[in-house]
Amino acid sequence: MTAPDREESLRALYRAFNARDIDTVLAAMAADVDWPNGWEGGRVVGHDAVRRYWARQWAEIRAKVEPTGIRERPDGTVEVGVHQVFRDRGGTLLAVGDVRHVYTFAGDLVARMDVEQ
User: Fold this and answer.
1) What is the separation of C-alpha 80 from the centre of its chain, rounded to a whole number of angstroms?
2) I want to staple 30 with a disulfide (CB 3.0 to 4.6 A). Which of 10, 51, 79, 109 is the partner?
3) Could you give the CA distance from residue 63 to residue 83 in angstroms, rounded to a whole number?
4) Any idea what the CATH number is for the domain that residue 35 is in?
5) How would you label 12-21 residue by residue, b for 16+ Cβ within 10 Å and e otherwise?
6) CB of 9 within 8 A of CB of 27?
7) Which of 116, 117, 115 has its CA nearest to residue 43?
8) Residue 72 forms beta bridges with which residues?
9) What is the C-alpha to C-alpha distance for residues 19 and 55, in angstroms, rounded to an integer?
10) Measured at the alpha carbon of residue 27, what is the angle toward residues 23 and 84, in degrees to the nearest 5?
11) What's the pTM value of the predicted model, to 2 decimals?
């Protein structure tokens, strides 16, 4: 996958996440994806664990994440600057901030994601 293709793939991933289209998001991930549990802490591994994590999260909070910039790092990972807005189920603002999501790929699939402040 070329850098422009990877960038568009990641942008599509964020659009799908914001639309709560979990099947599209999971299709872009390796079966044993290693994903941060930014809401409860720790990590989850595999499609089923990611699906359960997001189901719990989306039942309680509304997260919207928008990429602000994407660049490949020298080590081959891809850094995505992200603007995040979190609201409770009633729409009350809980948090707003900017972080970096760092993706490791296995071929064309996301194998791991890490969050950096």
Assistant:
1) 10
2) 109
3) 10
4) 3.10.450.50
5) ebbebbeeee
6) no
7) 115
8) 78
9) 13
10) 70
11) 0.93
> What is the rounded CA–CA span in Å between residue 88 and residue 61?
4
Report how far residue 114's alpha carbon sits from residue 79's, in angstroms, rounded to the nearest whole number: 9
Q: Which H, E and C letters describe the chain, residue by residue? A: CCHHHHHHHHHHHHHHHHCCCHHHHHHCEEEEEEEECCCCCCEEECHHHHHHHHHHHHHHEEEEEEEEEEEECCCCCEEEEEEEEEEECCCCEEEEEEEEEEEEEECCEEEEEEEEC
What is the count of structural domains for the chain? 1
Contact 42, 65 (CB under 8 A): no
Tokens, residue 75: 């080590």
Q: Which domain holds residue 22?
A: 3-116
**pLDDT score of 63:** 94
Structure tokens at 52: 């359960």
